[in-house]
Fold this sequence. Notes:
The chain is α+β, with helices and mostly antiparallel strands. It has helices at 3-19, 33-45, 55-65, 89-103, 120-127, 132-189, 198-206, 210-226, and strands at residues 22-27, 48-53, 78-83, 107-113, 116-119. The protein is built from 8 helices and 5 strands; from the N terminus they run αβαβαβαββαααα.
Amino acid sequence: MKKEDKEQIVRELTERLRSSETLLVADYRGLTMPQIDALRGRLLESGARFTVVKNTLTRRAAEAAGADALLTLLEGPSAIAFLEADGDMVAAAKALADMARESRLLAIRGGVLQGRTMSAEEVESIATLPPTDVLRGQVLAAIIGPVTGLLALVSAPLQSLHGLIDARIEQLGGAEAALAPEEQASEEETPEAEPVHEETAATEADEPTQADATASAADTDVTEEEA
């Protein structure tokens, strides 16, 4: 390989190392080209680019990019999965773990996560996690769950109070509705007092009563006896 080609590879690796916060490293010895191509396709689906690298050139690129955590993983033939910004680390780790189980040749060496070295066991543990979307949902549920419970606990007395008020309003409305027909019926049954006419009163005053007639007859009898 010409020196110019090597320099170009180092520059490209340096740029990838600077732009990738997550790397997964594996020993690919023994894999056939069809197996490597199949693994590369799976990793692309998870947002990772799988590249077979030369350790000498990769060490130079790691030093230039300040990715010192990668240096300890560069032992023997190496292939690196560079995870894109929107890549799925869980899916990428699962792709490597599946190929290691299927081929019995690929060996996961470890990885780098935001400047921290991960062991092979940590990468394999990540591969057993649920998909990223499910993890996000679980985390969101864990955050929202206590808040929702607190809101329900706080709002429960207010809801009970509103329920009591509504029930009381309905009760009062029903009582008024029942009382209104009774008042109307009472008003209809009570007759209005008939007015007393002045002529009737005057006639009754002018007509002699029975006591006056008796007294007049007695006076007449006494006068006849005297005569």
